[in-house]
Amino acid sequence: MAVKPIIHDELSLKFKSIPATKQDLAAANDLKDTLLANNGKAAGLAANMIGVQKRIITLFVGPLPIVMLNPIIVSKSDKYLAYEGCLSLEGERPTERYKKITVKYQNENFETRQQEFSDFVAEVIQHEVDHCNGILI
């Protein structure tokens, strides 16, 4: 298990991440291990939060963490105002989110998937994809 420290430097978190490749699977596993170690404090993490500038996110869907490589939100609907926290930042901040999203991503076998998510899971995915794009709440 390779639990990594969480990055708090907002400047480094504002860089856009580049696409993940098969050589980044170790970083994806580190990210998942770090999320598991922060269970109860974080619902999801993006790779730049552990110092890896790759488009990799992990989040809890139920009790289990899933990894998404190169996630792209392809559709979204039902905008609302959310108040979110982040392990990398202090406090909660308001942000616009969407209740329903469709995400295209690759799993850990680099198989392309497209899946719909809603409610809290959709909110977490949007937060982590924003991290990949260098956007902070």
Summed up, the helix count is: 3
Number of domains: 1
CATH H-level superfamily title: Peptide deformylase
CATH topology: Peptide Deformylase
Shape: globular
Distance between the termini: 29 Å
> What fraction of the residues are assigned to beta strands by DSSP?
35-45%
CATH secondary-structure class: Alpha Beta
| Strand arrangement in the largest pleated sheet | 1-2-3-4-5
**Overall pLDDT score:** 95
Query: Judging by the overall fold, what is the CATH architecture?
Result: Alpha-Beta Complex
Q: Please report the total strand number as a whole number.
A: 5
Pairing-aware structural class of the strands and helices?
alpha+beta
What would you say this structure looks like, in words?
The chain is an alpha+beta fold. The protein has a single domain, classed as Peptide Deformylase, CATH 3.90.45.10. It has three helices and five strands, in the order ααβββββα. A five-stranded antiparallel beta sheet has the order 1-2-3-4-5. InterPro entries: Peptide_deformylase, Peptide_deformylase_sf.
In brief, what are we looking at here?
Its EC number is 3.5.1.88. Belongs to the polypeptide deformylase family. The protein has 137 residues and is α+β, with helices and mostly antiparallel strands.
